[in-house]
Amino acid sequence: MHMNSPLSRWTRRALLSALTCLPLAGIAQSAPPTKILVGFPPGGSADVLARLMAEAMSPALGTVLVENKPGAAGRLAINAVKAAKPDGHTLLLVPSGPMVMFPHVYKKLEFDPAKDFTPVSLIARFQFGIAAGPASSAKNMAEMVALAKTRPDAATYGTAGQGTAPHFLGVMLEQTTGVPFLHVPFQGGAPANTALVGGHVGYKIDVVSETAELHRAGKVRVIAVTGPERDPQVPEVPTLKEQGVDMAITAWFGLYGPAGLPADVAAKIEKAAAAAVRQPGLRDKLVKLGYQPVGSTGAELAAAQRVDLASWRKPIQSTGISLE
């Protein structure tokens, strides 16, 4: 076919048009995904919540992935987000403990919760559970205390890390009951579960969802929950107050970006997070996992952080615990 034919000219125009579009397509495909960093191993409560949120937020934000950076009681992930570029592509899903307790715990904390991050949304509130494993015969708090008095060597409790909220719940439990317990920190809830089921620790204090399934399977026994009301995951388990222990503790998960996140970018992520939590399907999943769905504004998360930072100061200082 001769190159000057009408069909050839059309073919050349179509080819040039297609080639002109290729760079644009390449740019669209190369847009980086949004990463939600979690400071604990896969399979734990933080990881599960992050993956549910990532899936629900993807329609609004594009590809959203979860990256686990376990270690140092969540501080590895926190510091990674602190150092990230404030472009909205690196986020942090974190329980409230590091943001409201660590400043009172660590002598030299690598980050400032109030200055190094942009609050985006308080995703959900939750409570903790105290679970007994095969190494303990306790079926309630009275039996746990009685056993600890007779067998101090077996009064060990595992948590997801030193300086975390469950760690201090154990310390406060000691103060309230007058019985010493030995803290055994792990790098996350899943490793602590393995130790609990294996009889390496007598008890575990963690988010209720971490041990609820093991409780239902009869591998461990959740003997108390720490909130003001019973938890829907284990409705048969009484609260601490119902068992005569004068404590009521709850916490929350917050979504943050690095400091300096542009207002329009923060607003877009905040809107996506709030919309995700409002989805009936996701709300039902969160409730079944023992969470009280919130999906707040960034300003509301900042306010909750300030209130809890102040409220934890005295209880933590009263323990005398200070970490490097």
Note the total helix count.
12
Helix content: 40-55%
Give the SSE order as H and E letters. Answer: HEHEHEHHEHEHEHEHEEHHEH
- Report strand %: 15-25%
Strand runs, count: 10
Beginning-to-end CA distance, first to last residue: 80 Å
| Global outline | globular
* Low-confidence spans: 1-28
Signal peptide: 1-30
Family: Belongs to the UPF0065 (bug) family.
Keywords: Signal
Pfam family, one: TctC
What is this structure's SSE topology?
Layout: H1 6-29, E1 34-38, H2 45-61, E2 64-68, H3 75-83, E3 90-95, H4 96-100, H5 102-105, E4 117-132, H6 141-150, E5 156-159, H7 165-177, E6 182-185, H8 189-197, E7 203-207, H9 208-216, E8 221-225, E9 250-258, H10 263-278, H11 280-288, E10 292-293, H12 298-319
Parallel strand pairs: 1-2, 1-3, 5-6, 5-7
Antiparallel strand pairs: 3-9, 4-7, 4-8, 4-9, 4-10
Describe this structure in words.
The chain has 324 residues and is α/β, with parallel strands linked by helices. It has 2 domains: 34-126 and 251-319, D-Maltodextrin-Binding Protein, domain 2 (3-Layer(aba) Sandwich); 127-243, 3-Layer(aba) Sandwich (D-Maltodextrin-Binding Protein, domain 2). It is built from 12 helices and 10 strands. The longest helix has 24 residues, at 6-29.
